[in-house]
Design brief:
Chain lengths: 267, 338
């Protein structure tokens, strides 16, 4: 009896959480440009690829996806490398000012992004970075959050392996790449997945730094599609396409998301 | 006792592995010699030693710190200076003292935006926590394929606001044929305007955020539930306590640190709400969904009043700072994000 209730609740909740995604996927095959009179408008009676064809004939949509890939993939790999190195430095190395610097990092992370965006806009205008990838790539090359995660992770790892390598004559760089990096694969994967999601999904920053349509990432591009009332099918096709990379990353790295969320909070 | 044992075991293992003296002693010797010799070494030699030991620190930390100063510290300070200037897009900035701060105090719309944001928090925080807890309880109750369901509930967390807002807007269309209105009609509820109604728009946006974020509160609660001692449940069950009673007297109080932590992070998140109001309502109708960040965006980037936007961003910062300080006071943790 209790089991039945639990499973009923579970399936109902799961269905309602999935419904928006089902609507998105099905709706993307629906040919419909005008006002919708049917509440179940998103069920395509005769599925068509016309929305997808429309998006790609337009040309600009493929460009948006490309832009998103550029401003996502470069920071992802850069963050994985630099956060791993910096996390290792803060976890294992002794150098003057270590605690103070880390304390400053932890204080600065409290500053909301929205505060930094106004001065950054003025700076980037000065640098000539508006409507270039630099504005979204350079500031994201490493992140305090990632350093924090790696540091947490490495602090729980004993020093023996590292010391053994050092006695064998390995220098710092070698120790890092041969010993530390292979050990840190799970946490580095967490840093990478977090970075992917936050860059791929970011709307606020590109909205401000990118004013030309051909420089929009897919989030800003989709937002501009939302403005065009009535193109439900096209909107959903665009959403589906921009969702695919997120979904694939999520499918393969789900564990790292949930572990990362727990690590960032509860330890 | 146990620590000593552990150390012994480590040393034994090290001796065993290397067939040499324990690493610990070697390291000690090395440290001793280097520290005792240090003052006598010529400067060049000292630099070389430091370089050998900490090269990686200097090669990577210094550029990272420069980057940090350019993209975090400087903008933070610059933004504060900006609040005392009249920053023009073209032409030299002019010092205007507290003009923008005074303007803020007298700006009814800014206070309206703060109030809207507080209202949004009220609509959003408790339901997000409650839904997250319910999801975690179900997942934790030993259902089959719990990993798959966890993934489903977490999916909106990793999906962009743009996608979810796009679908949300269609679901909550304020006409008879809107899907939510259609469902409500089965319960005899009249057609609602939703996003076009100034009393409902903020609620619909809060609903969107609840749907988007509940999956991550679920993860926190799930971790918390797993750390609850199973023996407590056993004992309560033997005493004949009902499941509901067990929940309210054991589970719920034991999750207290998590309630607190989740409350803080959802509060911080709710004060930064921007995407959904930008995408779905544009701050309307009748300013009912103009939140702090949306107003900041309008002032700064639609109105090009960057100095005034900087004032608003500092107001946001102070609010978040107070919330974070409360967290530190009560939790004594160094983390305050996500």
């Amino acid at each position: 009896m209790k089991k039945t209730i639990t499973y009923t609740a579970l399936f109902l909740l799961a269905f309602s959480f999935l419904l928006p995604f089902i609507i998105m996927a099905l709706g993307s095959f629906k040919d419909m440009k005008y006002a919708l009179l049917d509440p179940l408008f998103w069920i395509p009676e005769d599925p068509t690829l016309s929305n997808y064809i429309y998006l790609f004939n337009d040309g600009i949509f493929a460009r948006w996806i490309f832009n998103s890939l550029v401003i996502t993939i470069i920071p992802v790999f850069s963050q994985m490398l630099f956060c791993a190195i910096l996390g290792y430095i803060f976890a294992k190395k002794n150098f003057p000012g270590r605690e103070v610097i880390f304390w400053v990092f932890m204080a600065v992370i409290m500053i909301p992004q929205q505060l930094l965006i106004i001065p950054k806009y003025i700076m980037f205008a000065d640098f000539g970075w508006i409507n270039t990838y630099w504005a979204l790539i350079i500031p994201e090359l490493w992140g305090i959050m990632g350093v924090f995660l790696v540091r947490q992770f490495l602090q729980n790892i004993p020093n023996d392996l590292e010391e053994a390598a050092r006695i064998d004559g390995a220098n710092d760089i070698k120790v890092f790449f041969k010993v530390i990096l292979p050990l840190s694969v799970p946490v580095v994967a967490t840093v990478g997945t977090f970075s992917f999601i936050s860059n791929w999904n970011d709307l606020f920053q590109p909205l401000i730094y990118m004013t030309k349509e051909e420089m929009f990432p897919v989030t800003v591009g989709l937002a501009s599609l939302l403005g065009k009332e009535g193109d439900f099918g096209v909107e959903m096709a665009g959403s589906t396409l921009s969702f695919v990379p997120t979904f694939l990353i999520f499918l393969f790295f789900q564990r790292y998301f949930t572990e990362g969320i727990q690590m960032s909070g509860l330890k | 006792m146990t620590l000593n044992n552990a150390e012994k075991i480590i040393e034994e293992r090290e001796t065993h592995n290397n067939g040499k003296a324990p690493l610990k002693d070697q390291r000690k010797n090395k440290n001793n010699t280097s520290s005792s010799k240090k003052p006598k070494l010529p400067f060049k030699e000292r630099v070389k030693r430091q370089w050998d030991r900490n090269a990686i620190v200097y090669i990577f930390l210094i550029p990272a710190l420069i980057h940090f100063i350019i993209f975090q510290v400087f903008p933070f300070a610059f933004s504060f200076v900006l609040t005392f200037l009249d920053w023009k897009v073209i032409g030299d900035p002019e010092f205007v003292g507290l003009k923008h701060w005074i303007a803020f105090l007298n700006d009814g719309l800014a206070w309206r935006a703060i109030w809207n944001t507080v209202l949004f928090s009220i609509y959003y925080i408790v339901p997000t926590m409650a839904l997250g807890l319910i999801l975690a309880l179900i997942i934790n109750s030993g259902v089959k394929a719990s990993g798959v369901f966890k993934g489903i509930f977490f999916l909106p967390v990793v999906t962009s606001f743009v996608i979810i807002a796009g679908i949300w807007g269609w679901l909550f269309r304020g006409t008879e044929s809107g899907m939510v209105n259609y469902l409500l009609s089965f319960f005899g509820i009249d057609t609602q305007l939703f996003l076009a109604d100034s009393d409902q728009a903020l609620l619909v946006l809060a609903g969107l955020s609840i749907f988007k974020v509940a999956g991550s509160t679920m993860i926190y609660y799930f971790a918390g539930l797993q750390s609850v001692d199973k023996q407590l449940y056993e004992a309560a069950r033997i005493d004949g306590a009902s499941p509901l009673r067990i929940f309210w007297t054991i589970t719920f109080p034991l999750l207290k640190p998590i309630h607190f932590y989740v409350a803080i992070i959802t509060t911080i998140g709710s004060f930064q709400i921007f995407d959904s109001t930008f995408l779905l309502t544009g701050g309307g109708p009748n300013y009912s969904t103009t939140t702090i960040v949306f107003y900041l965006y309008q002032q700064g980037f639609a109105g090009l009043n960057l100095s005034y936007a900087a004032v608003l961003s500092y107001v946001l910062f102070f609010i978040i700072l107070v919330v974070s300080l409360i967290q530190r006071k009560y939790l004594g943790q160094e983390t305050n994000y996500y």
